[in-house]
From TrEMBL:
Pfam families: Acetyltransf_3. The keyword Transferase applies. GO terms for molecular function: acyltransferase activity, transferring groups other than amino-acyl groups. SUPFAM superfamilies: Acyl-CoA N-acyltransferases (Nat). It comes from the Bacteria. Keywords: Transferase. Residues 10-172 form the N-acetyltransferase domain. It comes from Nocardioides alpinus. This is N-acetyltransferase.
Length: 192
């Protein structure tokens, strides 16, 4: 297995996040434009971004996590991307979020491609999943560009917008166990 803490693609530097990345990561995650399709996900305070950075340390200790993304050696962090396993989920979660100043350059697909390669190296039997909102066309294009296929759609449980539709993409055809896990994770439950 390869050491995935530091990866170079054609245009990007993907590195395990460090504390010095906190301000840049917060700027990206606090930007309302970055959360236009899911406003409730926005980081309203620095502590939330600190939690993200702390979780990253846990994820990397388990073998793989999200990277801080730069497009130059001395430049600021322009995004966060990669794969992690959330809790006990039977899949890798593919994530990509970029500063609005660099969107439209194909960075998300480039980082996502590296993340897929890393996940398949670390645990090839674990599928790679991306979940996103139907209205986020750019994120859908990225998932499809790196070879993921739509395997589930339905109401987005817990979303402030009752009309929101969640889409789930996977890098392979789901088996029965993965389908059951998808239904448990993404199907809204009635409130009592």
């Amino acid at each position: 297995m390869r050491d995935w803490r530091h990866v170079r693609t054609d245009r990007l530097r993907l590195d395990r996040p460090v504390q010095d990345d906190l301000a840049d990561l917060h700027r990206i995650h606090a930007d309302p434009d970055s959360w236009a399709h899911f406003p409730q996900g926005r980081h309203l305070d620095l502590d939330r971004t600190r939690q993200t950075l702390s979780q990253s340390e846990v994820d990397w200790a388990r073998g793989l996590g999200y990277w801080s993304v730069r497009d130059s050696a001395a430049g600021p962090v322009v995004g966060m991307a990669g794969c992690t396993v959330a809790g006990e989920e039977p899949w890798w979660n593919l994530y990509y979020r970029f500063d609005s100043s660099v969107r439209g350059r194909g960075y998300a697909a480039e980082a996502a491609g590296a993340a897929l390669e890393a996940a398949r190296d670390v645990a090839p039997d674990r599928p790679v999943l991306a979940y996103l909102l139907e209205i986020n066309v750019a994120s859908r294009r990225t998932a499809e560009k790196v070879g993921l296929s739509l395997v589930w759609s339905g109401p987005d449980a817990g979303n402030d917008d009752p009309d929101a539709v969640r889409l789930v993409y996977l890098d392979r055809e789901p088996d029965d166990a993965i389908r059951a896990a998808l239904d448990v994770r993404f199907t809204p439950r009635p409130t009592v």
